[in-house]
Write a structure and sequence with these properties.
By secondary structure, the protein is of the alpha+beta class. The protein has 2 domains: 9-108 and 117-194, no CATH class; 213-337, no CATH class. Helices cover 32% and strands 10% of the residues. The protein has 13 helices and 8 strands. The strands form 3 sheets. The protein has a 4-stranded antiparallel beta sheet with strand order 1-2-7-4, with helices on both faces. It has a two-stranded parallel sheet with strand order 3-8. Strand 5 and strand 6 (178-179) form a beta hairpin. Helix 2 packs across helix 5. The protein is globular and about 70 Å long. Bound molecules: cobalamin and iron/sulfur cluster (2 copies).
Amino acid sequence: MAGTMRPTSRNLAAAAPDETCATDNAARVKQLAAGLGFERVGIARAGPISRQDYLTEWLSSGRAGAMGYLHRHDALRRDSRLLMPEARSVIVTALNYRQKAEEPPTDDRTPRGRVAMYAWGADYHDVVRGRLTRLVDAMRRELLEPFEARICVDTAPLLEREWAAAAGVGWIGKNTMVLHEGLGSCFFLGEIVTTLDLAPDEPATDHCGSCTRCLDACPTQAFPKAYEMDASRCIAYLTIELRDEIPAEFHRPIGDWVFGCDVCQDVCPFNRKAPASTVPEFAARPPNPWPRLAELLSLSDDECRTKLRGSAMKRATRTMLQRNAAIVARNVGEAGLDHPSGGLNAEEP
Ligand code: B12
Ligand code: SF4
Ligand code: SF4
């Protein structure tokens, strides 16, 4: 856990009563979170984020592509106290989703596409939110003072990686993921913005060193430079967020990814020895991670709704999934699987 703030008996004696309380409460919150299966927990002081200029430049440079929601609630994104005026602390948690890598099944010769690991099992929004709700309940039972708490998982206007870095949960790697030496980067972030005064942690230090594996491996050159992403080029954006046609220059680089991409995490040395997730809900639900392209291409709206219920894959519409599957079908030499709603541009690059 990020909690390196445990006081010695000497500095405890010297600490003011409020400080002692903040330190004790922080330690208790971390214990409760660990008991609920969160691998990392860190605390940051609520307030403005430190890299506001970077965010402004990033948004104005068009790197957010068509993700208009990243431009909305801009002020809230810059200062967590605007989400909750009396907020004192941001508790940041990490929940490991790493699964054993799976080769494509060889029992039949059906062409298949690949789904990014974060979407193999149950929708993380539900799983992380469920556990954070239990954490807040436990905090209300155990901590003596009343407090307000707001749970954020992905969709709130909060720059989760910025907060994770500030709270010492991990450092922001050159591939822009939050990374931890022991845990790698295959974990979800979730936060509790709260009025509780909790002793903050130190930010983590960067261990990327001279490594550039993620930057070199990205199939679409989505990193203009280290630590910076042009999201409009990322396969995760193209296959999950972009509702229109995917520009032809990206068709081939998409390879076999029908939903998301894991390349810049797969090549990261910190993920090589990272532990597997112990969260049962994140185990792969068939047909993930290798759905048959023909099945994706023939899904009706109703079937799509039923099959994707409870999965993070429901973020993409049926048309988007079929657009992606048609591109992958071409890439794996199965152009005959094209679908009228595949959304393919007429020309390959
Ligand atoms: C939009 C979004 C995307 C977009 C854009 C990604 C991006 N890099 O910005 C797309 C669709 C491409 C995407 C892809 C993925 N995403 Co996403 N995404 C988000 C979302 C909703 C918002 C991110 C955002 O605001 N980006 C805008 C930029 C400007 O913000 P930022 O990168 O966080 O940058 C801030 C800081 O990091 C810092 N900073 C930036 N650059 C630098 C440089 C240096 C040197 C330093 C020190 C700091 C620093 O300053 C910035 C301003 O404060 C977050 C959830 C959230 N609410 O935060 C999830 C989130 C980032 N995604 C997540 C995941 C799992 C993924 C994927 C792995 C899914 C997949 N396999 O397909 C990929 C990973 C791709 C990658 N390498 O980042 C996780 C990441 C967990 C982790 N361990 O880091 C998050 C946190 C969701 C969650 N709750 O767990 N995602
Ligand atoms: S997720 Fe894939 S496409 Fe996106 S930056 Fe990483 S390697 Fe590149
Ligand atoms: S691959 Fe190398 S440079 Fe990229 S995030 Fe991992 S350690 Fe950092």
